[in-house]
Specification:
The complex is a heterodimer of chains A (about 240) and B (about 325). With about 240 residues, chain A is an alpha/beta fold. Chain A has two domains: about 5-80 and about 155-240, Rossmann fold (3-Layer(aba) Sandwich), CATH 3.40.50; about 90-155, no CATH class. Helix content of chain A is about 35%, strand content about 25%. Chain A is built from ten helices and ten strands. Chain A is globular, with a radius of gyration of 17 Å. Chain B has one domain (about 35-325): ABC transporter involved in vitamin B12 uptake, BtuC. In chain B, the strands form two sheets. In chain B, strands 1-4 form a two-stranded antiparallel sheet. Classes of the chains: A alpha/beta (about 240), B mainly alpha (about 325). Chains A and B meet through helix 2, helix 3, helix 5 and helix 6 of A and helix 8 of B.
Chain lengths: ~240, ~325
């Protein structure tokens, strides 16, 4: 296994009086796509938000590339090379697609070659370049949200349920885009409920339940073990095919 | 589920021009009611000038509401302080303002405006750091502490400049009116319209043509995502608050010259109209604020002429009607 770019050590997160993450430990190997699975309310989104600094961990360490980023502010973490695609997509509806991309490209105007690469997977973004993002369909908004995260090379991309409510044709494009990102050695931590999608892309898998990690494995091993899927996730891959 | 067919054509984007038609619509409706063309024109220009001054004051507040989610009931303090700071220039340079020379009058006015904007902007910085920062996300405390800040600012004015009313005479070249046939238009109102248009144009350019403007617009919608993209929204907050305070200072100077007198509660007096304007326009919307200011000022002027007894309540009625039509204001910002 490659060395980890991200390591969570005994991370606890409280939201108000609620104790959501209760000692989360796992690693994300460099250059791999790790899938974070779990039932609704298991703490997957809170884990991503804690890594991103949107919730501060009350205990434990979040180590990114050898540095503890646990208490840092979100802009520092983002500038350190982590991109975030939230579940709600977080697009700026009153801004055009172009303006959304300009903001995502922190280091200046978006690189044209990089844009062409993005357009090859998500051609709708080129078509609607000057349109206010609020007028895009749900799938197109998701494309824009992912495109923003990859408009400049990042060392780690956190993606929260990108396939939720999205048409199969767009999901196929997402799969191709993520496979291409993996070939460029980008590390991805993906929260996903669609096990078929996750199993096609994932190198490693981490399963959460009740704010704790309950299983770590290679994705191929979990995909080939219907009994484990049923035990851990209440489903089997066969049920999704 | 999103249909792949969504990609087959450009979505139809409806241009929302209806709110923009309200201002000319109101003017057209008022014309036959007023009867006299010259009276109508005078009232309309006066209303537009007043609207521009209210816009200058309100534009900063609407951005503070939209971007920072801060209920700043102390905005009136920056109006009053700005107007009083102008006295630092107006009193010693009284011969410039009294001279029958447009260049000298203009130089004096610009100097007064610069001092007022710099002073109220600096006060805004201190206000944000000391009073607002500890109460981010706590609306009730924001209301209480900013109202307290307004009271303290007014009392400080009494201490420094005294409690008595101060005269703020118009520069000589801006007195009187220009006549077009039967229509008399006060010169100072024309200047107020010009300054208002310059401020609106500058804000439009900054918000739409610069990266800072993009960040402000994005921050009004979703500040958390702006931070997740790597930008420090707190710095943006401070910048917008200072700019909003400086604009209130500019508005204070304009308003004080408009009234030609100055009291410590000049800011508090105008705040009800300012709140109505930003609610009508849609919290956080500069374009909505511009339209709202013109509507409020024109309505106040027309009703004061047509039905003086209902003039006081006319803006409340206008707000009720607008909110019945568009509950989030004329141009609501996406998140609100």
């Amino acid at each position: 296994m490659a060395d980890p770019i991200l390591r969570l050590e005994g991370v606890h997160t409280h939201i108000g009086q609620y104790h959501i993450l209760q000692g989360v430990d796992f690693e994300v190997p460099r250059g791999e796509l790790t899938v974070l699975l779990g039932r609704n309310g298991a703490g997957k989104t809170t884990t991503l938000r804690t890594i991103m600094g949107l919730w501060k961990p009350s205990r434990g360490r979040v180590v990114f590339d050898g540095q503890d980023i646990g208490g840092r502010d979100t802009p520092d973490i983002a500038q350190g090379g982590i991109a975030y695609v939230p579940e709600a997509m977080g697009i700026f509806a009153d801004l055009t697609v172009r303006e959304n991309m300009i903001l995502a490209a922190r280091d200046g105007a978006p690189d044209q070659a990089r844009l062409d690469w993005i357009f090859s997977f998500f051609p709708a973004l080129k078509k609607f370049w000057s349109l206010a993002a609020g007028h895009l369909s749900g799938g197109q908004k998701q494309m824009l949200s992912i495109a923003r995260a990859v408009v400049e090379p990042r060392r780690l991309i956190l993606i929260d349920e990108p396939t939720k409510g999205i048409a199969p044709a767009i999901i196929e494009n997402m799969i191709r885009a993520f496979q291409d990102l993996k070939r460029s050695d980008t590390t991805i931590l993906l929260v996903e409920q669609n096990f078929r999608f996750a199993s096609m892309l994932g190198d490693g898998v981490v399963v959460m339940d009740d704010g704790r990690i309950v299983h770590r494995d290679r994705m191929a091993a979990l995909a080939g073990d219907p009994a484990a899927q049923t035990r851990l996730l209440g489903l089997s891959l066969d049920a999704h095919q | 589920m999103t249909s792949a067919a969504d990609d087959t054509g450009l979505p139809r984007v409806k241009l929302d021009y209806l709110p923009a038609l309200l201002v000319p619509g109101l003017m057209i409706v008022a014309a036959p009611l007023i009867g006299s063309g010259s009276t109508w024109a005078t009232l309309t220009v006066a209303g537009l000038a007043m609207g521009m001054m209210i816009f200058i004051i309100a534009s900063g507040l609407t951005l503070v509401f939209g971007l920072m989610d801060v209920l700043n009931f102390g905005h009136g303090a920056f109006i009053s302080i700005g107007a009083y700071l102008a006295l630092i220039v107006v009193v010693p340079l009284a011969p410039w303002f009294a001279a029958d020379s447009l260049p000298l009058n203009l130089a004096g006015l610009l100097l007064a405006i610069l001092v007022a904007m710099a002073g109220s902007g600096a006060l805004g910085y201190a206000f944000e750091r000391v009073l607002i920062m500890p109460v981010y996300g706590q609306h009730l405390k924001q209301i209480l502490i900013t109202m307290g800040g307004l009271i303290v600012a007014e009392q400080m004015i009494h201490v420094v400049w005294g409690a008595q009313q101060v005269a703020m005479p118009l520069p000589t070249a801006f007195r009187g009116a220009i006549t077009f046939g039967d229509i008399a238009v006060e010169k100072y109102r024309l200047i107020a319209v010009c300054i208002g248009l310059v401020v609106f144009g500058a804000m439009f350019l900054v918000l739409n043509r610069t990266k800072i403007g993009l960040l402000i617009r994005a921050g009004v919608e979703n500040g958390e995502m702006v931070e997740a993209l790597g930008y420090r929204i707190r710095r943006l907050f401070v910048g917008v608050f200072v700019a909003g305070s400086a604009l209130a200072g500019l508005g204070g100077v304009m308003w004080a010259f408009y009234r030609e007198t100055l009291t410590a509660n000049i800011g508090g007096e105008v705040m009800i109209m300012v709140f109505i304007v930003i609610i009508i326009g849609g919290l956080g919307s500069v374009g909505g604020c511009f339209l709202g200011a013109l509507l409020v000022a024109l309505t106040a002027n027309y009703t004061a002429f047509l039905a003086p007894k209902v003039a006081l309540g006319s803006n409340i009625l206008l707000m009720v009607l607008v909110l019945m039509w568009r509950p989030m204001g004329l141009y609501p910002v996406a998140k609100r």
